[in-house]
Specification:
This protein has two domains: 183 residues, 2-Layer Sandwich (Ribosomal Protein S5, domain 2), CATH 3.30.230; 313 residues, 3-Layer(aba) Sandwich (Rossmann fold), CATH 3.40.50.300. 38% of the residues lie in helices and 16% in strands. The chain has 22 helices and 18 strands. Strand 15 and strand 16 form a beta hairpin. The longest helix has 18 residues.
């Protein structure tokens, strides 16, 4: 048996939001006392239980657990550690400290992984963030379980080796076996594959031509949109098909999406589809923290999980006022900063907000087939649940009238998602060319300077917009929103300048501003 090393150190990582911080797993063996593992370094319950998992995994893999007291320190001590990702580095550290693993290559690797009692590895959250950290630290590579290794392989400049068990990891580090690193190019090709076509398609939407047009404009410019209509008018059905007309995410966008979902553990459970834009539809009982993000150790919420995708809020006025108000700053900035006692993190959340609501509490205001039972005070109170500042941040307000029997009985399919996606893609390409060299990718994200440059109006159009502003009592923010939407409509028409029909169409997409809210 090899001479025991009194101390072994292995580098692992701790998640902080969607980023990773280095954690040094220091194992000191050979101490006098009862043969137990002592974990220090601000571990949570899952980390404290690592000792029992590691002990069983060592036994069942053919290694010998320590016969003396062994102290394991997770440094730095001020950083809270959570989750089972330290099982594999702890086990390898124990083997190195007790002389059962003789290698000089431990410092070359960043290692993470959960262990089963049999010694098999299980995936962990945040593999993509860990891979970026390994590259930043100049590590040769990473040892990770299978699913986590596939994520980490997307990051170029760092070797990612898949280890299926503690035994194979130890034998690889000792040089007894050879394992090939995963190919980053193959992983990236997989990430860029478009999602398989599902059953959902805009061709299934009957009628609602004005609503479909408004949604196409919204997607083309990545504008926020709210649909107002009675029950059964197809608002939810249409919203769920919006991702089918959105352009496929670029590789950079896919990596950002995957980073967030990996930190939330969704990639482990297979909830995230490669190459697809996220679609999140939280229930109206969602809490502020679940929507915004947070927790003891801050993590991503629904708005971050919808990054580069769609956040759908059905029955908008039924959401808690506090939950809706936390959306105001993220809608404006595209990111959210969360401060907790454990630290402060900033998470990306550049999503497209799609909301749906009834025109009144009973839902039948303006429906020719049903009588509305709501009084003016009830209607005003219901609509006032959506604050003016939040409404200002929604670019497009569009009515979704009830369908006629003739439309419902029609067998003629609507326009398909594929043809709509082609027009949207063309408009997005114009925007990418317009904003080349900047961080802006869509009209909805234009700054004030860009609005002045790309949304100029002639005198007649200026008078027209001024008249609309005065009659509808619109705010300065609504003024900018109208110009942005008009620019998108012009892009769909392949027009270099905003023309009067484009401006008029954009003005009509402020229907809620024409009703009493206060």
């Amino acid at each position: 048996m090899s001479r025991a090393m009194p101390l072994a150190t292995i580098v692992s990582a701790a998640l902080q939001g969607i980023d990773a911080e280095p954690v040094h797993v220091e194992v000191n063996a050979g101490e006098v006392g009862e043969p137990r593992l002592f974990l220090v370094g601000l571990p949570d319950t899952a980390v404290k239980e690592s000792g029992d998992r590691v002990w069983a995994a060592l036994n069942n893999t053919g290694f010998r657990p320590p016969r003396t007291r062994t102290t394991i320190n997770l440094a730095p001590g001020h950083l809270r550690k959570e989750g089972p990702c330290y099982d594999l580095p702890i086990a390898l550290g124990v083997l190195a400290a007790t002389g059962q693993l003789k290698t000089e290559r431990l410092d070359d690797w960043l290692i993470a992984g959960e262990l089963s009692l049999s010694g098999a590895t299980r995936p962990v959250r945040g593999a993509l963030a860990m891979a970026r950290l390994a590259r930043k630290l100049g590590k040769r590579g990473m040892l990770l379980p299978a699913v986590s290794a596939e994520e980490a392989a997307l990051v170029e400049g760092v070797e990612v080796v898949c280890v299926e068990s503690l035994d194979r990891a130890a034998r690889y580090l000792a040089g007894e076996i050879q394992l090939a690193a995963l190919d980053p190019a193959a992983a990236q090709r997989r990430a860029q594959q478009p999602p398989a076509d599902g059953a959902a398609d805009f061709a299934e939407i009957k009628g609602q031509h004005a609503l479909r047009r408004a949604v196409e404009v919204a997607v083309a410019g990545n504008h926020n949109v709210v649909m107002i209509g009675p029950p059964g008018s197809g608002k939810s059905m249409l919203a769920k098909r919006i991702p089918t007309i959105m352009p496929a995410p670029t590789l950079d966008e896919q990596l950002e999406i995957l980073s967030i979902h990996s930190a939330a553990g969704r990639t482990i459970s297979g909830e995230t589809t490669w190459g697809a834009r996220p679609f999140r539809a939280p229930h109206h009982t969602v809490s502020d923290v679940a929507l915004l993000g947070g927790g003891t150790i801050p993590g991503p919420g629904e708005i971050s999980l919808a990054h580069h995708g769609v956040l759908f809020l059905d029955e908008l006025p039924e959401f808690k006022r506090s939950a809706l108000e936390v959306l105001r700053q993220p809608l404006e900035d595209g990111d959210v900063t969360i401060s907790r006692s454990a630290g402060k993190i900033t998470l990306p959340c550049a999503f497209m907000l799609v909301a749906a609501m009834n025109p009144c509490p009973c839902g039948y205001l303006g429906d020719p087939k049903h009588e509305c039972r709501c009084g003016p005070t009830q209607i005003q109170r219901y609509r006032a649940r959506i604050s003016g500042p939040l409404l200002d941040r929604i670019d497009i307000h569009v009515d979704a009238p009830a369908l006629s029997l003739t439309e419902l009985r029609s067998d003629k399919p609507g326009e398909s998602s594929a043809s709509m996606r082609e027009r949207v893609g063309t408009a997005r390409s114009r925007q990418h060319a317009r904003f080349a060299g900047t961080k802006i990718t869509s009209n909805a994200r234009m700054t004030h300077a860009q609005i002045r440059k790309h949304c100029s109006l002639d005198a007649t159009q200026g008078d027209l917009l001024q008249q609309a502003m005065e009659q509808l009592h619109l705010s300065a923010r609504a003024y900018d929103r109208i110009l942005k939407v008009a620019r998108t409509i012009a892009d769909l028409a392949a027009a270099e300048r905003i023309e009067s029909p484009h401006l008029l169409e954009a003005i009509q997409y402020r229907s809620l501003d024409r009703t009493l809210f206060y």
